[in-house]
Amino acid sequence: MATVRKTFQLVGAHWSTQDPFLFIAHHNEMYPKGDGNGGIADRGLLKGRHMGSDFSGKDGFSMYHGTDIPGFPKHPHCGFETVTLAEVGLCDHSDSLGCGGRFGNGDVQWMTAGAGVQHAEMFPLKNAEGGNPLDLFQIWCNLPRRSKKAAPHYAMLWAENMSIQEFAGGSVKTIADHTLTNIPPPPPASWAADPNNFVDIKLYTLDAKGECTIDAVPKATPAHDITRSLFFFEGSQVDVAGQSYKSHTGFELDPLQPVTIKAASPARLLLLQGRAIREPVAQHGPFVGNTHDDISAAMQDYRKTQWGGWKWPSDGPVHALDKGRFAQYADGTSEDRS
Questions:
Q1: Residue 77 has what DSSP assignment?
Q2: pLDDT at 218
Q3: What is the DSSP secondary structure assignment for residue 64, as one 8-state letter?
Q4: N-term to C-term CA, the chain
Q5: pLDDT (0 to 100) of residue 221
């Protein structure tokens, strides 16, 4: 069987994935100089946008659902998880559990929405002297039926604790690994918490002429329902299993075969792997269930309870700009990473 089963183009900011993942959003923005309050200093750059729903990419950035500060003001999630890789720039998190924080520049946030949570994700522009680039991935990971009503959970994987393995010609950053060794553990209800589900999330960085090999899943493993996807999102050209491909190509790979990647110039690639859940998926925006009745019930519950309510001073709160990276948890504990 061919190592590369299928290729597809990475078009726009949302990329399709295989079960157990739902999709990837890649926010690659060149935000301009800040105004000292987290917003954009040159308000003229906001003209001609559909403010409140700006996905235009005009002048190299989108405001998304933010008006003064870019980002995503409060919105609900249920029935799945978000894994957010903030490689460059900052993201301010606030939620209905009372959790909040600021993360970025290599940090990862892993949030189990489970039974339901509201949260906001804003992108404050701290630099008032120059640009504020943002390079952020958000991966939506599905949950099986038995875990869709799990208690919401918010966890930070700080950059300084991440596993980054360097090799001749590049490096690999591990967010999730099915061996569950040398990495912070996934949330308890996560599909990734069970090593038998073979969930891997890894970010590969290759130098010019660099190469790496992604090992096969052990042949003794029941692998008929393990999926492996690779996303080549930055660089000019790579060879995958001996064939050349241009940037913004996605791959569905055979997990039972090793695959070698060679880069013509500096390149970055994202790997997602996991055992497929193999359950029906019903989705309405940020509500994910197994049936349409699940969605109706979740929406009714949200309208009734607001999943803890919203105690923040605005729908799109931004923490004090003089604060560094930090996390505040629902149990009252906090971490300050400055």
A1: E
A2: 83
A3: B
A4: 50
A5: 66
Nearest to 17 by CA among 177, 240, 216, 252: 252
Q: Cα(318)–Cα(39) distance, rounded to whole angstroms?
A: 10
Q: What whole-number distance in Å separates Cα of residue 104 and Cα of residue 151?
A: 25
Within a 10 A sphere around the Cβ of 254, how many other Cβ atoms? 18
Other CB atoms within 10 Å distance of the CB of residue 90? 25
Strands (DSSP E) along 160-225, which ranges? 163-167, 170-176, 200-206, 211-214
- Token pair of 254 as six digits: 């055979």
For β-strands 90-95 and 100-104, DSSP reports them as antiparallel
For the CA atoms of 124, 111, 148, 223, the dihedral, rounded to the nearest 10 degrees, stands at 120
Q: Which residues, at least 6 apart from 225, have a Cβ–Cβ distance to it below 8 Å?
A: 275, 276, 278
Neighbours of 159 (CB within 10 A): 18
Q: Is the pLDDT of residue 123 over 90?
A: yes
pLDDT, residue 245, reads 98
Q: Is the peptide bond before 20 cis (omega within 30 degrees of 0)?
A: yes
| pLDDT (average), residues 125-147 | 98
Q: Give the residue-averaged pLDDT of 151-156.
A: 95
pTM greater than 0.70:
yes
